[in-house]
Specification:
With 257 residues, this protein is α+β, with helices and mostly antiparallel strands. It contains six helices and nine strands; from the N terminus they run E-E-H-H-E-E-E-H-E-H-E-H-H-E-E. It has two domains: 106 residues, Urate Oxidase (Roll), CATH 3.10.270; 130 residues, Roll (Urate Oxidase). The structure holds guanosine-5'-triphosphate (GTP). It comes from Oryzomonas rubra.
Length: 257
């Protein structure tokens, strides 16, 4: 059969990333409290393509995933990227694994247990050495300090999402990152709250007003104190309840030298 992908291309334009996107696939993630957690990811896999080839071999990405199907997790990223580079004959390879991760939380007063979902991502690239970034999105409540100061009663508050990205030397638990980031808003979120919990989190948020700037500065201080983290970025987006737009802030620290 003819193989179009192998044919030459004469435009002299190399492609930085080409591959497959949004493959739904079961994976296994290390769970701090239950050793392993099975979840379903959306996976993207890319390679670079030199200018002289017409196309890449899309089927080979999926073949490689299938070869590791028994256990696709953090420890498999390096072997998968090595294999992608070798099978596709590329100089670089990238894999992005986005998945929902569940953490059991206890309501602050009643102790009622519930599962909270956190959107996470493993982003790994390989040229000569592996570059790995862990991404975790943490939803929070934020309450506006300005509104609290100005208003005779109440203060506007909203759901916020903080996105933390880290590079590190030694393994970091998703649970520990979530716990660190949850300290940075006005109050954490829970899936299940009884009335006594609702009173508690409402008052907690009122007692801890935070601008979006306060949230990223708080996260910066806490993450910078963790020596194991070599690079991080933090974004906060507050889905304002008095505006039809969001308040946003971002910070970054790079200690790789
Ligand atoms: N490169 C490329 N392939 C595409 C695209 N859209 C669909 N495909 C299909 O991806 C399929 C798999 O390609 P290959 O991996 O080269 O398949 P193959 O030649 O059977 O496999 P190998 O022998 O391992 O190369 C082909 O049927 C392509 O038509 C595209 O935009 N670019």
């Amino acid at each position: 059969m003819p193989d179009m992908q192998k044919r030459p291309d004469h435009r002299r334009i190399p492609i930085a990333k080409v591959g497959v996107k949004d493959i739904s696939y079961p994976i296994v993630v290390m769970d701090k409290n239950h050793s392993l957690q099975h979840t379903v990811a959306r996976i993207n896999m890319y390679v670079d393509l030199p200018h002289h080839f017409k196309g890449t071999h899309m089927s080979r990405f999926v073949e490689i995933l299938n070869r590791h199907r028994e256990h696709i997790g953090l420890d498999k990223l390096e072997p998968i990227l090595d294999e992608v580079k070798a099978r596709l004959g590329s100089a670089s390879a990238h894999v992005e694994i986005q998945f929902p991760y569940f953490i059991e939380k206890k309501a602050p007063v009643s102790g009622a247990k519930s599962l909270m979902e956190y959107s996470c991502e493993f982003k790994a690239s390989m040229t000569d050495i592996l570059d790995f970034v862990l991404v975790v999105k943490v939803p929070l409540t934020s309450l506006c300090p300005c509104s609290k100061e100005l208003s005779r009663a109440g203060a506007h508050n909203q759901r916020s999402v903080m996105t933390v990205r880290v590079r590190y030397r030694e393994f970091i638990w998703i649970e520990d990152l979530v716990e660190l980031i949850e300290q940075c808003g006005s109050s954490p979120l829970y899936s299940l709250l009884k009335r006594e919990d609702e009173k508690y989190v409402t008052e907690q948020a009122y007692d801890n007003p935070r601008f979006v700037e306060d949230m990223v500065r708080e996260a910066y201080s806490r993450l910078a104190a963790v020596e194991n983290i070599t690079w991080f970025s933090v974004e906060a987006e507050n889905f304002e309840s008095i505006h039809n737009h969001s308040a946003y802030a971002a910070v970054e620290l790079d200690r790789r030298a």
